[in-house]
Amino acid sequence: MLDRRRRQFLTLLSSAAAAWPLAARAQQSMPVIGFMSARSPEDSVHLLEAFRRGLKEGGFVEGQNVVIEFRWARGEYDRLPEMAADLVSRRVSVLTAVGGDPSPRAAKRATSTIPIVFGIGGDPVRDGLVESFNRPGGNVTGVTLMTNLMESKRFGLLRDLVPDAQLVGALLNPSFAPSARQSQQIEEAARSIGQRLIVAKASTDEELDAAFTALVRERADALLVAADPYFDTRRDRIVGFAQRQRLPAIYHFREYVLAGGLLSYGISLTDAYRQFGVYTATILKGAKPADLPVLQPTKFELVINLKTAKTLGLKISDNLLTLADEVIE
Questions:
Q1: DSSP class of residue 293?
Q2: Are 118 and 104 in contact (CB under 8 A)?
Q3: Using CA atoms, how far apart are residues 80 and 86, in angstroms rounded to an integer?
Q4: Which residues contact 309 (CB under 8 A, 6 or more apart)?
Q5: DSSP readout, 98-122?
Q6: What contacts 68, CB < 8 A, 6 or more positions away?
Q7: What is the fold, at CATH topology level, of the domain defined by 21-146+269-291?
Q8: In CATH terms, are 21-146+269-291 and 148-266+301-328 the same topology?
Q9: Low-confidence ranges of the chain (pLDDT < 50)
Q10: Which strand (E) or helix (H) includes residue 52?
Q11: Coil vs helix vs strand at 327
Q12: In sequence order, what are the residues at sequence separation of 6 or more whose Cβ sits closer than 8 angstroms to the Cβ of residue 211?
């Protein structure tokens, strides 16, 4: 009797195992990508499409032969260390840390063994992420977007756009580690031409409202929004403020211009995310981060929204229109 019950139990057990969803059992043998970002999923839909496109170029399709675990900080940088530690504890195959400088920094502090693909806006050598661009060393490589290094260039373009501006405003996030260098770039650019400058700082929604108030109170004639993932997650609020105040503004990504902003200068973010996917796939196939050089952008794009310019009553110079890579009408 006992043997028969044991056989019945074992039969039931094996039947239950066979009934597990095939997809769930297949996922157990798939590599897992830990994807962490300082941004939010709502403003990154098109970027994830580009990332998945890069993965596919390398032979990986989510749900078929790879799994992706997503973590989003939504501009709250202090959440990133816990997210990185969580993904490391799950023993992901690759950690893709993007959406701004705080993400790869948290990832590197969390692991020295799991391969990391980063996206950073500054100099990864100076910031201690890699040993060199050509031979990164260690477990980290990726792409620098150079967004944090272009503030003086954007300041010059804004001045070309509004040459008669008496006071230029700059919006920076003091919680963003590169902000000190960004502020220095902007202040030096303003000082070199004798331009009056007001710097407004914000790292929370309450501080952002206060920064808007300060810019209105001081009667800024133009605005430079410094590169920062928190600002990316509040893109519509910032663009809306500039529109309401009829304030000519320059940004670091074309996404701001597509949302109604006036002018942007920087790299193609979708191209960068496709490359994140390509590098992640390359590592999944066995390449070591130490042997993959850090990639740098070769093209920067100037995008102008003529519709917004007309709304502001602003005449775009022929020189700027000639320089523009894209004009939105």
A1: P
A2: yes
A3: 10
A4: 262, 315, 316
A5: ESSTHHHHHHHHH-SSS-EEEEESS
A6: 32, 33, 35, 62
A7: Rossmann fold (3.40.50)
A8: yes
A9: 1-2, 4-27
A10: helix 45-57
A11: strand
A12: 171, 200, 201, 202
* Sign of the alpha-carbon torsion through 261, 262, 264, 270: positive
| Domain covering 148-266+301-328, topology | Rossmann fold (3.40.50)
| CA 10 and chain centroid, separation | 52
Give me the sign of the Cα torsion angle 191, 197, 201, 205.
Answer: negative
**CA–CA gap between residue 82 and residue 72 (Å, rounded):** 11
Q: Which tokens is 165 given?
A: 């501006």
**pTM for the full predicted model:** 0.89
Domains of the chain, by residue range, sit at 21-146+269-291, 148-266+301-328
pLDDT digits (tens, 9 = 90+) for 85-110: 999 999 999 999 999 999 999 999 99
Residue type, 223: L
Closest CA to 128 of 101, 155, 150: 101
Name 141's Cβ contacts closer than 8 Å, sequence gap at least 6: 116, 117, 118, 130, 279, 289, 290, 292, 293, 294
E strands, the chain, in order: 32-37, 67-72, 94-98, 116-120, 140-144, 167-172, 196-201, 222-225, 249-251, 263-266, 301-305, 326-328
For the chain, the distance separating the N- and C-terminal CA atoms, rounded to the nearest angstrom, is 83
**Residue 180 host element (H or E):** helix 179-192
Strands (E), 158-266: 167-172, 196-201, 222-225, 249-251, 263-266
| 55-95 confidence digits (pLDDT tens) | 999 999 999 999 999 999 999 999 999 999 999 999 999 99
